Amino acid sequence: MQEKNNQNMLLELDRVSHFFDQRLVFKDITLSLGKGQVLLLAGPNGAGKTTLVNIMTGLIRPVHGTVQAGVPSGKTAYLGHHTFIYPGLSALENLRFWAGMYSLDRSEKEFLDLLALVGLKGFAYENARTFSRGMSQRLSLARVLMLEPELIFLDEPATGMDAQSRRMLREEIGKARQRGASMVWVSHSLEEDLDLADFVLYLENKKQAYLGPAKDFRDHCRENQL
Ligand SMILES: Nc1ncnc2c1ncn2[C@@H]1O[C@H](COP(=O)(O)OP(=O)(O)OP(=O)(O)O)[C@@H](O)[C@H]1O
């Protein structure tokens, strides 16, 4: 995907293997992600996608191998199973809180514009405790967009989202990619999402069954009956 030690390299995994209680999840994952590249991470349930994202973000230390990130932690963002939403705060207060955490100077109008972008304008002052799964996911997306990260981890970000929200999500992913952000994106909707990706890593049978250009993945699936 990129030459090793390239200064545009944002994430590099070298022979990463992981076990839970002696049970192998996957072995020997080696990849580099460059600036502005989108890696789609796919595979059947239980293949190890979330585990690999957790290793990439540093939440889990791999049993073997190394992970190097070329961006400071303040320039990475995660949208996935944990929404990081404070249920006792309104949508706007959540954004204000996160902005404070990252020392970002944002006006009330900017918060409201962000909430409008993710379709939550009418809920800015509502307590986040009352939000559905899809609404919480949209608020979490607003947090990610506010950070303008260089490296974004998306673990099934469309979970709980309706068709309109999924379209908005894909549009925002496209915009982030255009401004040069890199992404690792776990998806179960390959047909929909493949066109926004540069590379695909397909995990199956405890190894990388495919790692290569997204444009060649469909042919690979046909040839290998995936
Ligand atoms: N904390 C844990 N302790 C023990 N086993 C775990 C733990 N987390 C995950 N596993 C196991 O590791 C394997 C990979 O799980 P993981 O959640 O990474 O898969 P996934 O590809 O993300 O699955 P899905 O598509 O269902 O979300 C599974 O067999 C799972 O049961």
UniProtKB/TrEMBL annotation:
What are the UniProt keywords, alphabetically?
ATP-binding, Nucleotide-binding, Transport
Q: Does the keyword Nucleotide-binding apply?
A: yes
Q: Please, which domain of life does this record's source organism belong to?
A: Bacteria
> Which molecular-function annotations from GO does this UniProt entry contain?
ATP binding; ATP hydrolysis activity
Transmembrane segment boundaries: none
**InterPro entries on file:** AAA+_ATPase (IPR003593), ABC_transporter-like_ATP-bd (IPR003439), ABC_Transporter_VariousFunc (IPR051782), P-loop_NTPase (IPR027417)
Q: Where is the ABC transporter domain?
A: 11-226
What Pfam families would the database entry show? ABC_tran
The name of this protein is ABC transporter related protein
Protein species of origin: Desulfonatronospira thiodismutans ASO3-1
